[in-house]
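Prompt: Have a read of the protein record below and flag anything odd:
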Amino acid sequence: MAVDHYENFPVASILLPAPLREPVAAIYVFARSADDFADEGDLAAEQRLALLGAYQTELDLIERGEATDHPVFLRLRPVISQYSLPLQLFRDLLDAFVQDVGKDRYRDFAELMNYCRRSADPVGRLMLHLFGHASTTNLARSDAICSALQLINHWQDVGIDAVKGANGRIYLPQDEMERFGVSDSDIARRITSAEFRALLHFQVGRARALMLSGASLGWDLPGRMGLEIRAIVAGGLRILDKIEAVDFDVFNSRPILRPLDWPTIFWRSLIRPLDTLT
């Protein structure tokens, strides 16, 4: 199992309260299918954009109260209505997927975080709206967790992303690559140099700090909701541990969660570390 921010949806999880399993699944189907439009298969860019544009049109229909016959939105519409979910969060996701079709480099970390704000943070915000805990403080902590998960996914998949699209997709900020002495061609040739290791060491430390800055959310939310978030946080941190364990050589040893990792994740979900105390 990889750390992918849509796979980290608690879809039909036994940890979720039963009434929330279908709403979460409906949101997941929307996000997963739209993400696949941007990334999967052999469609041309124009076809990918057309599919994403059709989803944008469906959101407009919901906003205007008009009918739909699209199966994804027939399932999603009552969830949006019942829980008063902000349509802008769905639009932000689609905007990020559109960006993925045409953008394959990020100038600096601020530009990358702007992408995370739209590609990852809406997931957590939607969950908090479903849970009824969408306070300003909770939303900020959720953003930190979701952006960290997105970054972790990028760092474990540097080698996979490098072969996506015509030029490969590199999420490592270009200015930081230059600072550490790593080039696009180094990534394309999958060279795990000392410079690359230093760059990824820096990125792993930043992702861990960001994750920990939001981790207290899982301890402050009640019951199964909090436990679900704690497990997701623990899984993300476990991947970072594994990136370090292979000495940052993610080209030849892509870190994933295996069955033997789950006892550690479960234990970390039950024992609150001192750095999450507020």
Remarks:
- The CA atoms of residues 16 and 81 lie 20 Å apart.
